[in-house]
Design brief:
The chain has 8 helices and 13 strands. The protein has 466 residues and is of the alpha+beta class.
Length: 466
């Protein structure tokens, strides 16, 4: 929870350059490391020591003792080594480079992804991308390298897999950086497309590893009633993710109507693409539980584009749908992923959690920009909207299920969900909201010193339990 709060505080300081001593600085996490798929590591301490040949220009403060190096110019490889030849084990992934406060957030963090040899050899780093299909489906992480976003060298390797028995013997460091589902609310009511129980492209994905895991899932231990309920709940999740595509499309149009910075607009479009993948993954899982294809029909949009020109309406909606809703969604998906047992379900939830965290950061960044632009009156309306929304979350029961389902299939028990939401309100949402509406906070385009940035973080941290 504390790390999530720090991420939100950073995102909500729109236009600020924060030097983070607590929680970041020499140690940055990219995604939930505790629930990462086996063989995939999130960004870890850049002060770590690697004896396996840390890539040149990748490690910030790390120690390397030999092994193949790869510069930022393209991976450093000359010829792809024979798969039978010894490779240095992959180094511990690290986070490098500057923090960003617009368009991209956080540092460039390297992750480990592996593949089987191709034609008896490990592909060169520049040719490895098509073979690395082990990213969780729905991942919206943007590529980067030690020299910056989109630069050459975002894949480095090959290295040996630390598990000698794993057929995916060719491993690579892949650079990723955070780049930007919320409900589609029309006059306060959620709008979703109807389900369609027929063959549909929405019930299939392009993620090969996920599709294989889903095909191999053994659901025979579930009672028929449990399978039907799980199919219904995953279908509902798919409907909501599908509607989120439209929500972000509407958000992008509203940003243009308000003359918002281009970084926010770019982030909104990237988030919409994330939601397309989330919807397909959720509906594919629903189809597996149902034993038949489950897709979605046309989405009714009458009235959905009202008030695009109102900064206040857009900001207050983002408080509820984005700052509160997506922050909770990210936290809940991460916890549910830790309890999930079918690999396909776990992969889907890990991806959703990681993406929803970025979407939440986008929402907080926009609201910070909006209150800076809209002045004291809008700031007061935002504070009141946060108070109402958080009181409702903290006091109300989730009411999401008719009965509890096995948590190993992607849904937390109602009591656990209620407890988690109340903890998230206390540990993340209230302190982040207080920091955002604080009139002493940052203003758009203003640069802050490291001391000022840490003052903001300490102010939020005082709300956390010891």
């Amino acid at each position: 929870m504390r790390k999530f709060l720090l991420r939100i505080l950073v995102a909500s300081q729109w236009g600020a350059s924060l030097a983070l001593v607590s929680g970041c600085g020499t140690h940055v996490e990219s995604g939930p490391s505790s629930s990462a798929p086996e063989g995939v590591a999130s960004g870890v301490s850049s002060g770590s020591s690697s004896t396996g040949g840390a890539a040149s220009g990748v490690s910030s403060g790390s120690s390397s003792t030999g092994g193949a190096t790869s510069g930022a110019g393209g991976g450093g490889e000359v010829d792809p080594p024979d798969a039978s030849a010894p490779l240095d084990p992959h180094p511990d992934p690290t986070c490098v480079g500057p923090f960003h406060d617009g368009g991209y957030y956080g540092q460039c963090c390297y992750e480990v992804h592996c593949t089987a040899p191709v034609g008896g050899a490990c592909p060169a780093a520049s040719e490895a991308a098509p073979h690395l299909d082990d990213l969780p489906p729905g991942s919206g992480t943007c590529t980067c390298s030690a020299e910056g976003e989109g630069a050459a060298g975002w894949i480095q390797g090959p290295y040996a897999n630390r598990k000698a028995s794993d057929p995916a013997r060719c491993c690579y460091l892949v650079g990723s950086i955070s780049c930007e589902g919320r409900p589609l609310l029309v006059r306060g009511e959620p709008r979703v497309a109807p389900l369609a129980h027929a063959p549909s492209a929405w019930s299939q994905t392009d993620a090969r590893r996920f599709e294989r895991a889903l095909a191999d899932a053994d659901l025979s231990a579930l009672a028929p009633a449990e399978r039907r309920e799980l199919a219904r709940r995953w279908a509902e999740r798919g409907q909501n993710e599908h509607a989120s595509v439209a929500s972000f499309g509407r958000f992008a149009l509203a940003l243009m109507a308000q003359g918002a910075p281009p970084q926010l607009l770019e982030a909104a479009h990237r988030a919409a693409l994330d939601e397309v993948r989330h919807a397909r993954v959720a509906l594919a899982i629903a189809s597996a539980y149902a034993g038949e294809p489950v897709g979605v029909g046309p989405l009714p949009l009458h009235g959905a584009l009202d008030d695009l020109g109102s900064l206040e309406a857009l900001t207050l909606a983002t408080v509820v749908e984005g700052c509160v809703g997506e922050t909770l969604s990210a936290i809940e998906a991460e916890v549910a992923a830790q309890a999930a047992r079918p690999p396909a379900v776990r992969m889907a939830l890990q991806a959703i959690a990681r993406d929803e965290a970025r979407h939440a950061e986008l929402a907080w960044a926009f609201v910070r920009w909006a209150v800076t632009t809209g002045g004291a009156r809008l700031r007061g309306r935002v504070a009141a909207a946060f108070a109402r929304a958080l009181d409702q979350v903290g006091a109300g029961a989730p009411g999401m299920a008719d009965r509890d389902l096995p948590p190993s299939h992607g849904f937390l028990a109602e009591g656990e969900l209620h407890r988690l939401r109340r903890q998230a309100v206390a540990d993340v949402l209230r302190p982040a909201a207080a920091a955002l509406v604080d009139e002493r906070g940052s203003s758009a385009g203003r640069e802050f010193s490291g001391a000022r940035g840490n003052d903001v973080l300490r102010g939020g941290a005082t709300y956390l339990p010891t």
